[in-house]
Amino acid sequence: MFDDLLDANRRYRTEFADSGVSGRAAKGLAVVTCIDSRIEPLAVLGLRVGDAKIIRNAGARITDDALRSLVIAVNLLGVNRVALLHHTECAMAGVSEDDLRERIAAASGADATGLELFTMVDQKAAAASDIERLRACPLVPPTVEVGAFIFDVHTGDVSPLMPNT
Asked: Going from the N-terminus, what domains does the chain have, and what CATH number goes with each?
């Protein structure tokens, strides 16, 4: 079932050279972005391997797990700024938790009640809420800069979603 991936890796290995890049974020950046496969976060932001920590989840939200990763990144891996990178046409935007749970239940045949999905009626409001959650965490130094941006999946444009903090 995964033979295509292993075959691709064999080809990759023939050209792979250890870059010697450190496990720290060379640009001091962490990017929280969506799982949408149209987003290539390094390319979108003009970055290279080793420049940033990339955290992905549905909707680019500051979930418990994203927060856990950011706490590690800002305290141990050289991160001093965080970019929330939302995108246009996000399946998590403009839909309610209940509506998405119903769609998941219909597709899976299982009850999705109680599953927190972090949908967002308004991406800007969701980003503001996530920034507030990040700022409220005592394990994230107040010196960490945070910005929220939106990537247009049709034009490639990245623009501020709200003022940086």
From this structure: 24-162 (3.40.1050.10)
pTM of the model: 0.94
Give the separation between CA 20 and CA 40, rounded to whole angstroms.
22
Return d(Cα 13, Cα 2) in angstroms, integer: 17
82-100: average pLDDT: 96
Measured torsion, CA atoms of residues 43, 149, 34, 81, in degrees rounded to the nearest 10: 80
**145, amino acid identity:** E
Run of H or E including 52: strand 52-56
Confidence of residue 165 (pLDDT cuts 50, 70, 90): low
Please list the residues that pair with 29 across neighbouring strands. 52, 81
Residue 26 carries which side chain, given as an amino acid letter? A
Distance of alpha carbon 109 from alpha carbon 134, whole angstroms: 35
Angstrom distance (rounded) from CA 127 to CA 106: 29
Average pLDDT over residues 114-138: 96
Handedness of CA 95, 99, 105, 108 (dihedral sign): negative
